[in-house]
Design a protein that fits this description.
Layout lengths: L1 H19 L15 H8 L4 H5 L5 E12 L3 E8 L2 E8 L5 H8 L6 E10 L5 E12 L15 H6 L1 H7 L1 H23 L3 E2 L5 E2 L11 E4 L4 E5 L4 H9 L4 E9 L11 E10 L3 H20 L3 E4 L2 E4 L5 E4 H7 L5 H5 L1 H10 L10 H12 L8 E4 L21 E6 L2 E8 L4 H16 L10 H9 L4 E7 H8 L18
Parallel strand pairs: 3-5, 6-10, 14-15
Antiparallel strand pairs: 1-2, 1-4, 2-3, 4-5, 7-9, 8-9, 10-11, 11-18, 12-13, 15-16, 16-17, 17-18
Helix pairs in contact: 6-7, 7-9, 7-16, 8-15, 12-13, 14-15
């Protein structure tokens, strides 16, 4: 810290000297007529002789990220949003005043350069400065050995620095934007309408999760940050918007891990006259097209594992997955006491409120989920853990629901929607009873949503896809914090 403080003091002194020279440390703008990527595109293939014949001057702006000073001349590298290029600053090619200004610049400063291009003896494309301008003075040094840092938390806390010095980090977030745009294009082309639903809700619903609570002074009422947009999106289906989607922010007052952040992005969509089986086919098409646009194919590498997204994907019932992949005995599947004993042997935390279905899903999460690397649909979830899903016609103890697992984690949750208001009221009442016994993740009673169902919702299928987890897969990122620009962290 003492070393950094000394450098900052030196930079502050340089800033004072620049002011004394009449240099504006923070001008309002800077004329720029090209980007570094455009320069590389236009001149990257030219040899030295061809570049000498190019007499037109160009103006570039960027941050100084490297500097080699040779007294009367210096080589610097500048970086803009599109790339990096070298510049040659010679005392005899710029005015004396501008060269004095340059001598007081540091790595991290923003500079504007006007000049022509040439190749150095090593063949590197370089802009020969004929004029230069200080665009912004940096008072704090960039990390000297950023790539060697082991404290990744510092990178998350100072993402602005992480983006400056780690090109691959910037690439992750560029890819994230491309993924979201590809998703949006897919649904628009399928005649879905993009909508926005409330982030502050009087009753949180749509997922079994603990909400964040706030208070609105003017209305004099409690409000909750949404845990999911589901119940509002289904209200829109009731209203006749038969295909809707939202790329939204959700908030859940739960733990933080490499898979969980309290604020996260989800794609949620609803499709009238469809079933959960239709959505399985839709998923295969969606993921295939997104991968083709973003990755150029249907096979990716994730954390050392090769994952092939080529359809069709495996479809396995929850019970079969527990038996065939988890090695769970038949008795555990049909007897709650056996399930409790088995879960405790596996050191799985249970509560007195957990029903048999809840215990089985916890065993699944512990034994099966980590093994599902290739895209796999798990179907046949117990009704007990699916309070908004339609019961299966042949077996009312399970629902028409699937969860999609890829890379050893859940990516999506979908089901044929429960549109029977009487059945839905009973499910809500059960959730309220759980809440009264201390389950903070249980659903609230939503009377307005029940009223909407009483007007009639057509047969509908809906799904939520975790965008952050999808980005993790397609960018080979081990932690959700690597794909969220500003993840939540404990206070220092």
């Amino acid at each position: 810290m003492e070393k950094i403080s000394k450098v900052i003091e030196e930079r502050v002194n340089k800033a004072k000297k620049l002011k004394d020279l009449g240099v504006n440390l923070y001008p309002a703008g800077c004329h720029t007529d090209t980007t570094i990527s455009e320069v590389v595109k236009n001149f990257g293939d030219m040899d030295a002789e061809a570049l000498e014949r190019e007499t037109k001057t160009y103006s570039l702006s960027g941050r100084i990220v490297a500097l080699r000073n040779f007294g009367k001349a210096s080589f610097i590298h500048i970086q803009d949003r599109t790339g990096r290029i070298q510049s040659y600053i010679r005392k005899d090619r710029v005015s004396e005043a501008k060269f004095e200004t340059f001598k007081l610049m540091d790595i991290g400063d923003f500079i504007g350069i006007k000049g022509t291009f040439f190749r150095t003896r090593t063949g590197e494309l370089t802009i020969l400065a004929k004029d230069l301008t200080l665009v912004t003075k940096s008072l704090r040094p960039l990390p000297e050995k950023w790539h060697g840092l082991t404290d990744v938390e510092t990178r998350y806390r100072q993402r602005y620095v992480d983006l400056i010095v780690n090109r691959q980090v910037k690439d992750v977030f560029v890819t994230r934007s491309r993924i979201i745009q590809a998703i949006r294009d897919f649904f628009v082309n399928k005649d879905f309408l993009e909508v926005e639903t409330p982030m502050m809700q009087p009753i949180p619903g749509g997922a079994t999760a603990k909400p964040f609570k706030t208070y609105h002074n003017a209305l004099g009422m409690d409000l909750y940050l949404r845990v999911a947009p589901e119940l509002y999106l289904k209200r829109l289906v009731v209203g006749g918007l038969e295909r809707v989607f939202e790329i939204n922010r959700n908030f859940r007052n739960e733990g933080i891990s490499i898979k969980h952040n309290p604020e996260f992005t989800m794609l949620e969509f609803y499709m009238a006259y469809a079933t959960y089986e239709d959505l399985m086919e839709l998923n295969e098409e969606l993921f295939t097209k997104v991968l083709q646009k973003v990755c150029g194919g249907s096979i990716i590498e994730y954390q050392g594992e090769t994952i092939d997204f080529t359809p069709p994907w495996a479809r396995i019932t929850l019970f079969d997955a527990l038996k065939d992949i988890g090695g769970v005995e038949e008795a555990v599947l049909h007897d709650k006491k056996s399930a409790v004993d088995f879960a405790l042997e596996c050191q799985i935390k249970l509560t007195e409120r957990d029903g048999h279905g809840q215990i089985l899903t916890k065993i699944f999460d512990h034994l099966v989920e980590p093994k599902l690397m290739r895209p796999t649909f798990i179907i046949g979830y117990p009704t007990e853990v699916s309070p908004l899903s339609r019961r299966n016609d042949e077996n009312p103890n399970i629902t028409d629901r699937f969860e999609l697992f890829i890379g050893g984690r859940e990516i999506a949750n979908a089901f044929t929607e429960l549109n029977d208001p009487v059945d839905q009221r009973g499910r809500f009442e059960h959730q309220v009873a759980l809440r009264e016994t201390g389950d903070e993740e249980a659903l609230f009673m939503d009377a307005d949503y029940l009223r909407a169902l009483e007007y009639g919702m057509p047969p509908t299928a809906g799904e939520g896809i975790g965008v952050d987890r999808l980005v993790m897969l397609l960018t080979d990122s081990p932690s959700i914090r690597d794909v969220i620009l500003f993840p939540q962290l404990r206070s220092k």
